[in-house]
Amino acid sequence: MSKTWYPVIDYSQCKECGACINKCKHGVYEQRKNRPVVVNPEGCVHGCRGCQNLCPSGAIQYVGDTDGNNSCSCGCSGCC
Predict the structure, then answer these.
(1) Per the structure, how many domains does the chain have?
(2) What average pLDDT values come out for the chain (80 residues) when binned by 10 residues?
(3) Could you tell me the residue range of the domain that residue 31 belongs to?
C-alpha cells in the first residue's frame, strides 16, 4: 500500500454517485453526508486508477501522479 499515491476528490466536480466508494476494495473511501471522503489514503495501491476510471465526472486525481497515465496498473485482483 502507498503513502505517496492516493486519491484527492475535487468536490466542485463530484456528482456524489458513490462509484469510487463501491469500486475500492481497500477501504480508502467512506461515505459521509452523501459525499465520498478519503479516510484511509495509506490503503490506496500505488498506480491503481480503478476509482478514477469509473468516476463519471473526472473528479478524482492522485497525489504522486507524475505521468498522468489513465490506465490502471496496480495488478490487484479485482480492484480495477
Answers:
(1) 1
(2) 83 96 94 95 90 95 77 55
(3) 6-63
